[in-house]
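Exercise 7. Given the components listed, write out the predicted structure of the assembled complex. Treat all entries as one system.
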Amino acid sequence: MLLCAALISVAFAALSQTTAGKRFSRALLYFVLFVVISVAIGWLMYPFSQ
Amino acid sequence: MSQTNITSESDALTPAGYAAILAAWLVPGIGHLLLKHRGRAAIIFLCVGGLAVAGYAMRGHVYAMRGGDMFAFMGHLAEIGSGAFYFLARLLEPHGADTARVAGVYGTRFLAMAGLLNFLCVLDAWGIARAEKN
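Answer.
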């Protein structure tokens, strides 16, 4: 999941921004959001797995 | 009664623009390279290629065109987006998919993700080609 999130974040940042600095910060933001939201959805689904 | 043209003359791309869009689908990043966006091209190639190679290494399922059901057809549509990586995976597939293990299931998602990401990149190439033309 981390590899997938990292690669997609970098690609999204490259598509949405033009300068290297903005791309880096946006990729970091997307990556953190991907991971946090994925873990949150995982915990939300946890009660239904019992 | 007048008829509205959705695509006007100014929206039509040059042959080079169409070639760049086709190339962007066939080999991820090449379309952007043709449009002189080298940095973006390299990032796209590495990201789409990385996802596709990782999916293939995890022995994800490479869907054929005649998959049988709607899920397989949608999987094929998603995976074919990665262009050359999809055709290489179909060609090289020595052991076939191994979706009995969790890695194989993840691999299938990686392959689909690579294709869908490249579709976005093709749209971006189309946008750049249109902007450069106008």
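Discussion: Chain B is about 65% helix and 0% strand. Residues 14-133 of chain B form one domain.
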